[in-house]
Design brief:
single chain; about 400 residues; alpha/beta; 9-stranded mixed sheet; 4-stranded mixed sheet; 11 helices; elongated; binds adenosine-5'-triphosphate; binds magnesium ion
C-alpha cells in the first residue's frame, strides 16, 4: 500500500499547479489515502482560484487513475474558510468509490453515484458561494429553484427520533395539502431507504441529474439509495459536504412548498454545511424529555441560531408511554422537559409524540404511521406538529384531503 502511495505522489509531482510548481510542492494536498486500489485526497485551495484548480484536479485524477493497481480516484476540491471552519467542498469528482470507515455508516459506490460528479453548484452560482464568507442563510446561499422552503429536522443527540419525526412530519405536511419533498442528509447512517421501504435506485436523467424516488406522493432522496449497505466508506469532511450539496442541487426536485431534511445527529460539518449553503427557512429540533437529550437539543438550537437559521420549535419525542395492553401511562424518559426547555429558550413548542410500539413497528416495516394509519392517534400528533410548522413557515395550505380521526 505504501508503495502505491509513493507512486501516486510521484505522479502528482509531475502535475503542474496553476503557478507552474509541481502539485506536491504547493502545500495544497491533503494526506493521500489508499484503500484497496481506491485513492482519496483533497486539494484545499483559495475559493477565488477554484476554476484554475479544477483543471489541475482533472489532470491529477487522470494521472493517478492511469497507475496500475488504482481502481478509482476521488479528489475533492475544497476551499478554505476563514475563522477555522471546516473546508467547503467545491467539487466532488471522479468515480466516487469508497473504502475505509465512517463513524457508523455504510457506503460503496454504485452506478448512479457517477451522476454526482459535477461541481455542486446551482446554475449561475459562482464558485465559493455560500461558503468562506457567508454569515448564514441568505448570504450567498443559493436557493434551490422551485423549492419554496427548506427545513431541517435536527437534534444534537443521536437516536432521539429525528428520522421518524422527519418522515412523519413530511407525510403530515403532505396531508395538509402541501407539496413536500424529503432529503435524507444523514450520509453516515441514512434511514429513509428503510423507513420508506425503498430498494430501487434513482434514475439518472440528462446525463448527470438524478430523478428522486417518489413515495406517498413525495419526491425522496437519500445517499442510501446510491450506496450499498454495509460497505464501509470514508466520508471525510469535504466529501460529506459535497455529497450533501449535490443531493440538494443535482436532483430533479420539481416544485415544492417544503423540503424536509433529515439531519445526521450532532453539530458538525454536515449541519454547518446545510445551515450555510442552503437557505434553510427553519429548523425543527427533536428531543426526548430527559435532561441529557435536552442539553444536546440546546446545543443544536445554539448552532442554528449562530448561523441565523430560525428555530421553528421543539418536538418532544418518546414522550409519555401508553401501554398497548392496559392503557396505563408511564413517563419512561420523563415528560414535559422539552416544553419547559422551549419556554426557557423562547422557541415554540411544536408538540409531543408518545413512545409507542406502533410507531417503531411501522417505521421498521417501512410504513410510517402517518401513511399507514392516517386515522390513528399517532398520526394526529404528527399532523398537529405539521400544522404548527406550516404556520411557523407562513405557508398557506391547499385544501387538505379528508382524514377521519379515531378517538
Ligand atoms: N415515538 C416513538 N415511539 C417508539 N419508537 C420510536 C419513536 N420515535 C422513534 N422511535 C424508534 O427509535 C429508534 C430511533 O429513531 P430514529 O432512527 O428516528 O432516530 P434518529 O434520531 O433519526 O437516529 P440517528 O441519530 O441514528 O439518525 C427507531 O427504532 C425508531 O423506530
Ligand atoms: Mg436518523
Amino acid at each position: 500500500m505504501a508503495a502505491l502511495k509513493d507512486e501516486v505522489l510521484a505522479r502528482l509531482a509531475a502535475v503542474p499547479s496553476p503557478d507552474g510548481r509541481p502539485l506536491t510542492a504547493t502545500g495544497k494536498l491533503s494526506d493521500i489515502l489508499v484503500t484497496d486500489g481506491k485513492v482519496f485526497f483533497s486539494l484545499t485551495v483559495d475559493a477565488a482560484h477554484v476554476q484554475q484548480w479544477e483543471s489541475v484536479r482533472e489532470r491529477a485524477q487522470a494521472a493517478v487513475r492511469a497507475l496500475p493497481g488504482v481502481e478509482s480516484v476521488m479528489i475533492a476540491l475544497t476551499a478554505e474558510r476563514g475563522g477555522g471552519h471546516a473546508p467547503h467542498a467545491l467539487s466532488q469528482p471522479s468515480p466516487a468509490s469508497g473504502g475505509g470507515k465512517s463513524e457508523r455508516g455504510a457506503a460503496g459506490a454504485t452506478s448512479p453515484r457517477s451522476a454526482l460528479r459535477r461541481p455542486p453548484m446551482a446554475p449561475g452560482a459562482r464558485p465559493g458561494e455560500g461558503a468562506p464568507h457567508s454569515h448564514g442563510p441568505g448570504h450567498g446561499a443559493a436557493g434551490i429553484p422551485g423549492v419554496a422552503a427548506i427545513i431541517a429536522v435536527a437534534s444534537g443527540k443521536g437516536g432521539v427520533g429525528k428520522s421518524t419525526v422527519a418522515v412523519n412530519l413530511a407525510l403530515a405536511l403532505h396531508d395538509l395539502g402541501l407539496k413536500v419533498g424529503v432529503l435524507d442528509a444523514d450520509i453516515y447512517g441514512p434511514s429513509l431507504p428503510k423507513l420508506l421501504a425503498i430498494r430501487e435506485r434513482p434514475e439518472v436523467i440528462s446525463g448527470t441529474r438524478l430523478k428522486p424516488i417518489v413515495r406517498h406522493g413525495m419526491p425522496v432522496m437519500s445517499i442510501g439509495f446510491l450506496v450499498e449497505e454495509e460497505t464501509p466508506m470514508i466520508w471525510r469532511g469535504p466529501m460529506v459536504m459535497s455529497a450533501l450539496t449535490q443531493m440538494l442541487r443535482e436532483v430533479e426536485w420539481g416544485t415544492l412548498d417544503v423540503m424536509v431534511v433529515d439531519m445526521p445527529p450532532g453539530t458538525g460539518d454536515a449541519q454547518l454545511t446545510m445551515a450555510q449553503q442552503v437557505p434553510l427557512k427553519g429548523a425543527v429540533i427533536v428531543s426526548t424529555p430527559q435532561d441529557l437529550a435536552l442539553i444536546d437539543a440546546r446545543r443544536g438550537i445554539a448552532m442554528f441560531r449562530r448561523v441565523n437559521v430560525p428555530v421553528l420549535g421543539i418536538v418532544e419525542n418518546m414522550s409519555t408511554f401508553i401501554c398497548p395492553q392496559c392503557g396505563a401511562r408511564s413517563d419512561i424518559f420523563g415528560h414535559g422537559g422539552a416544553r419547559a426547555e422551549a419556554e426557557r429558550l423562547g422557541v415554540p413548542f411544536l408538540g409531543e409524540v408518545p413512545l409507542a410500539i406502533e410507531i417503531r413497528e411501522k417505521s421498521d416495516a417501512g410504513a410510517p404511521v402517518v401513511a399507514s394509519a392516517p386515522a390513528g392517534v399517532h398520526a394526529r400528533h404528527f399532523r398537529d406538529i405539521a400544522a404548527r410548522v406550516r404556520d411557523g413557515l407562513g405557508v398557506a395550505s391547499r385544501p387538505a384531503p379528508k382524514i377521519v380521526i379515531e378517538a
